[in-house]
Amino acid sequence: MRKLHCLLVGILMLISEGLFAQTTVVSGKIIDPTGTPIPNATIRIKSNRSSSGTSADAQGAFTLKTLPNAILIVSAIGYENKEIKATEGALTITLNTDSRSLSEVVVTGVGTATSKKRLGIAVESVSGSKLPAAPTASIDQALVGKIAGAQISSTNGTPGAPVNIVLRGINTVQGGTKPLILIDGIEVRATDINSLDLSNIERVEVIQGAASSTLYGAQGANGVIQLFTKKGKNGVSINYSTSYSANSYINSGHVHKAKLHSLLTDASNNILDPSTGKPAVFAADGTTNVAWAFGSTGYPSAMANPRNINNKAYNANFKYYDQFKELFGTGNTLNNSINISGGSGRSDFGITVSNNHASDVVRGNGYADRSNLTANLGTELFKGFRIRSITQLVYTRNTLHPLLGAPGGPGYGTGNQLGTNTTGGGSGIYGFLNTSPFFSLRQKLADGTSPDYQGAGTISVNSFNPFYNEEYTKGLDNKVDIVQNFDANFKINRFVELDAKYGLNYRTETARWTFYNQSENLNSNNQGAWLSYYGGDNTGEIDNWDYKTTFQNFLPSLYVRTDFDKDFHLNIPIQTTTQVSFDYRKNEYKELNTYGVGLPLSPPISILTTGSQAVSKDYVEPFVTYGYLVDQKIDLATYAGVQGGFRTDYSSNFGGGKPFTFPHVNGYFAPSEIGFWQGSKLSEVLPFFKVRAAYGKAGIQPNPFQRIITLSQQHLGNNGAYSIANPLHNADLQVELSKEFEVGTDFSLSLLKKGHVLNSIDGSFSYWTRSTSNAIYPIAVPLSYGSSTKYVNAIDLGSHGYQFSLNLPIYKSRNLNWDFTTNFGHQTTTVRAIHGAPNVILNSSAGSTALVLEPGSKIGQIYGSKTFTSLDQRKLDGTPYIDKSDYGKYQIVNGKVVDTSTKGIQFTDDAYSFGDPNPKFNVSFINSISYKNFTLNFQFDWVYGGHLYNQTKEWMYRDGISGDFDQAVTIGNQTEAWVAYYRSAYADKFGSQNGFRNGTKDYFYESSSFLRLRNVSLAVDLATYTGLKALKKVQLVLSGRNIWTSTKYSGFDPEVSSGATNSSYDRGVDHSSLPNIKSYQVGLNVGL
Amino acid sequence: MKHKLGIYISIFLFIAIAAGSCKKKLDVGDPNDPTLTANASDENGIIQLAAGGVYINGFKSGDDWLGNSYFSLPYGYNELLGDVVTGEAANQLINQISLPDYVILDDGSKISNSASSRTVLKLGNTRAQTGAGNNPFYYQWLNMYAMNNACNTVLSVLSTIKFSGDATTKSNTVSAWCHWWKGYAYASIGTMYYAGIVNDAAGTSNARYLSKDSLILASDAELDKAAAILGAITNTGDYSAVLGKLIPSFCQVGNGGILSPAMWIRNINTLKARNLLMNRLSPFVNSNPSAVITGSSMTAMTSADWQNVLTLAGAGIQNGDYVFTGRSNSVNGFFTASGGSVSALTTGLNTGKTFKISERLMQDFKSTDKRLSNDFTDTVLYLNQVGGFTFSTRYSVVSGGFGASGVYVYGDNDIGANEVYIAGSYEENQLMLAEANIRTGNIDAGLAIVDAVRNYQGAGVAPVANTGLSLAQALQELVMERRAALAFRGISFYDTRRWGWTYDISKGGGNYNAVIFTSDKKLNTHSTINYNFLDYWDVPADETDLNPPAAGSAPTKNPN
Question: Searching chain A, which residue's CA lies closest to the CA of residue B40?
Answer without folding.
Answer: A722
